[in-house]
Each structure stands twice: as structure tokens, then as C-alpha cells.
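Support request from a user on the community tier.

User writes: "When I paste my C-alpha cells into the form, the page sometimes reloads and wipes my input. The last time it worked, I copied everything first. Here is what I submitted, just in case something in the input itself triggers the reload:"
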């Protein structure tokens, strides 16, 4: 049974005033950065804005973390891995469309490299060892997946997963997969959710601790 607790359960808990008490333990456990090495093989700096597409649980959380990375110009929440016809929140939440909740990152590679984005992704943005689950959310739409936008990105991502696996920095095996598929932006109310909803129970419980942990672990690239 897929829990998909992001909207219905959080709303219910908030209504009775116990969201923080119920979820704080899990949030605290999920907000510690894992110390991992930098990538050995990275893309060289290049002129112009580049794009990365990553999936790792709730796109609100992923967006919140990467919006605070220096060199990131914009972060768009959306759906990757399925078709345009079914790229809506209600359909994706039904876990029948093959989409993953994902973010599209527009970044300046002269400021932040693709490999460094992956380091943030694996270290703090999500847990790459949990299959189809992040925090309170469960289902294939919350899977850990990288959608390379070029063969070069695929090479870097594949090599980094192998590097981290060989280093045994995680308590379990990395389940992150490299996938293909177009990215479709999510509905307007999902965009910039962290900034527009600072008191939302999900943001307070799950996203703010992640952002704080990112800033603590990566002070030189946080803004």
C-alpha cells in the first residue's frame, strides 16, 4: 500500500495540531548529511546555463535544498519518466504513470559543477539507499533516480555511484537508477513551495531541517 502522506495525512495532522510531534523523529533522522567524497570524474566548466534532472522523494524538499546552492539559477518541480498526458499530480500520486517526482535544475557550470550537484544530491537532498521511499512518502513516484541530460552527465553519474559504492559510505546499497524520459513541470502551486509556504507542516517538519543540514555541511556553496 502506497502511503503518499504528503498532502492528506499532513493536512489531517496539522488540523489537530500534532504534525510536528508525530513526524519530528523521522525528520531529524533524515536531516543529517552523510560525509561523502567529491566526484573523481566531473564535467569541465563550460559557458552557458546547463540543466540537471534529479528525482529523490518529494519534489518540495529537493527544490528547497537546491534553491540554496550557489550557481543554481532556477529549480522547477515536475514529473519525469512518464508521458505528458499523465503528468499531473493526481495521476502521478496514483502510482500508475511511471513518473517520478523530480526537479529540473538550471545551473551555471562555471560556479557549480554537475558532480558537485550530485554530491549534494547523495549527501543530504535524499537517502539513496531507500527504495521507493523518502521520509513520510512511499511509492515509485518517490524513487531515487537521475535523468542525465547528456551522455557526459550519464558517465559522471554512473562513475560517482560506483565510487560511492566502493567507498561504503552508506549503511546500505545505493538504489539510485539512471533513467531516461522527458521532464514535465508540475502545477503552479507546487513551484517555489518552500518559499511561498514557510509555515506549512510538511515544510517545517521535513524541508527546513534539510536546508539547515545542507548549509551546515556545505557552507562554501550555500546561499
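"...and here is what came back when it finally went through:"
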Amino acid at each position: 500500500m502506497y502511503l503518499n502522506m504528503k498532502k492528506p495525512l499532513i493536512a489531517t495532522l496539522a488540523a489537530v495540531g500534532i504534525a510536528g510531534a508525530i513526524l519530528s523523529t523521522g525528520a531529524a533522522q533524515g536531516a543529517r548529511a552523510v560525509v561523502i567524497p567529491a566526484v573523481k570524474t566531473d564535467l569541465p566548466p563550460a559557458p552557458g546555463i546547463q540543466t540537471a534532472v534529479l528525482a529523490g522523494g518529494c519534489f518540495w524538499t529537493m527544490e528547497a535544498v537546491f534553491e540554496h546552492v550557489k550557481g543554481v539559477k532556477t529549480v522547477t518541480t515536475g514529473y519525469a519518466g512518464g508521458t505528458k498526458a499523465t503528468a499531473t499530480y493526481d495521476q502521478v500520486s496514483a502510482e500508475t504513470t511511471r513518473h517520478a517526482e523530480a526537479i529540473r535544475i538550471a545551473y551555471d557550470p562555471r560556479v557549480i559543477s554537475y558532480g558537485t550537484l550530485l554530491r549534494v544530491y547523495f549527501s543530504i537532498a535524499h537517502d539513496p539507499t531507500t527504495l521507493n521511499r523518502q521520509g513520510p512518502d512511499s511509492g515509485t513516484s518517490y524513487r531515487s533516480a537521475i535523468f542525465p541530460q547528456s551522455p557526459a552527465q550519464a558517465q559522471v553519474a554512473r562513475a560517482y555511484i560506483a565510487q560511492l559504492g566502493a567507498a561504503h559510505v552508506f549503511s546500505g546499497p545505493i538504489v539510485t537508477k539512471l533513467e531516461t524520459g522527458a521532464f514535465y513541470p508540475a502545477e503552479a502551486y507546487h513551484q517555489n513551495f518552500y518559499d511561498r509556504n514557510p509555515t506549512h507542516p510538511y515544510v517545517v517538519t521535513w524541508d527546513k531541517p534539510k536546508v539547515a543540514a545542507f548549509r551546515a555541511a556545505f557552507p562554501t556553496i550555500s546561499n
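Agent notes: The reload is a front-end session timeout and is unrelated to the input. Confidence is low (pLDDT under 50) at residues 1-5, 8-29. The CA atoms of residues 41 and 159 lie 7 Å apart. Escalated to web team.
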